[in-house]
Every structure is written in structure tokens, then in C-alpha cells.
Design brief:
This protein has 176 residues and is α+β, with helices and mostly antiparallel strands. The protein contains six helices and seven strands. Strand 2 and strand 3 form a beta hairpin.
């Protein structure tokens, strides 16, 4: 029994040490990006990236809740156009609006998360020619509060999974 208590105590101590190191060492600035090369001209890829309505066709975040409610404001392809989503605990609630757009090259969006936690982020898509195809780089930038710093490794793992699913979906649609 004493051995079990010692093991539990050591585990708790290690978790506390990790939390303190994470809060002190990890930057508050969070950046994650993932890329894929798609065998299609950038104009074709752009038709699926440069519109919020088309983005939600392959976006893995909205697919996590089959009953998600998405409400659009504008056509979805101009600065200021946006959408609001509300879903279950897996997708929460929030808004995304186009902040910058360079047709066939780049789209920057502002993300406002409402539920399950309040926060803001910037999403970016950059398209560049690569060989006979198009390289798509998907990025997200935001600021982490102290508690979110502790979860950074889990966030990286989740973002890698979700961005991978999304880019795979974009690739399938664009290469048809």
C-alpha cells in the first residue's frame, strides 16, 4: 500500500512540475500550420478555400457535429463576410469572418470562440504553385492564457489531426 501511495505521489509531483514548467516556459503566442500539395491548379483549389460556404463543405471542425447550425452573413467570399456556428460540446459556438483576401493566393479570417471557452484566433490559408499542383498551407495563430499553455501539447496533437483531416478532404474535392 505504501508503494502505491508513493507512486501516486510521484505522479502528482511530476504533473505539478510539468504544469509549472509549461506555464513559465511555453510562449503565450501559439502558431500551428500544416500543408498539403494538391494535384490541381490553384484556381480550382481556391474555389474550395476562398469561400466560407465552400470551406464548410470540407472543414473537419463543423463535421464533428452532424446537427451543427451555421448561419452566414454575406456571400462568404469578401472581406467582412462571416458565419456563426452553434453545435454540441465537440464544436461549441463561435464566429469566423474574412479579414483579408487575395484571390487565388491568401485568405485570412478572424475567429471568435464563444463556447466552450471565450477566445480569439487568426486563421490563414496560403496557396502557392508547386510543380504541377498547388501547395495549401493552413495556419492558426492565437494567444494562450496560462492554463492553455499547460494543454499546448494536446492542442498540437488535436490541430495536427483536424488540419490533416481537413486538408485531406480539400485534396479529395479539389482533385476530382
Amino acid at each position: 500500500m505504501k508503494t502505491l501511495l508513493k507512486i501516486i505521489g510521484i505522479i502528482i509531483l511530476l504533473i505539478a512540475v510539468y504544469a509549472i514548467i509549461a506555464m513559465l516556459a511555453f510562449s503565450k503566442d501559439y502558431h500551428f500550420e500544416k500543408s498539403v500539395v494538391i494535384k490541381a491548379p490553384k484556381e480550382k483549389v481556391w474555389s474550395h478555400v476562398g469561400s466560407l460556404k465552400e470551406y464548410n463543405v470540407w472543414d473537419p471542425f463543423s463535421k464533428a457535429d452532424k446537427n451543427i447550425v451555421i448561419t452566414y452573413s454575406g456571400d462568404g467570399d469578401k472581406i467582412g463576410d462571416s458565419y456563426h456556428w452553434k453545435g454540441d460540446k465537440n464544436v461549441g459556438e463561435g464566429e469566423q469572418a474574412i479579414a483579408e483576401i487575395v484571390p487565388n493566393e491568401k485568405m485570412v479570417t478572424k475567429l471568435h470562440f464563444i463556447q466552450p471557452f471565450e477566445g480569439n484566433a487568426k486563421g490563414t490559408f496560403v496557396l502557392t504553385p508547386e510543380g504541377n499542383g498547388t501547395k495549401v498551407t493552413w495556419m492558426i495563430d492565437n494567444e494562450l492564457n496560462t492554463m492553455m499553455k499547460i494543454m499546448k501539447p494536446m492542442m498540437d496533437n488535436n490541430m495536427d489531426k483536424m488540419f490533416g483531416q481537413g486538408l485531406d478532404g480539400l485534396k479529395q474535392i479539389s482533385e476530382k
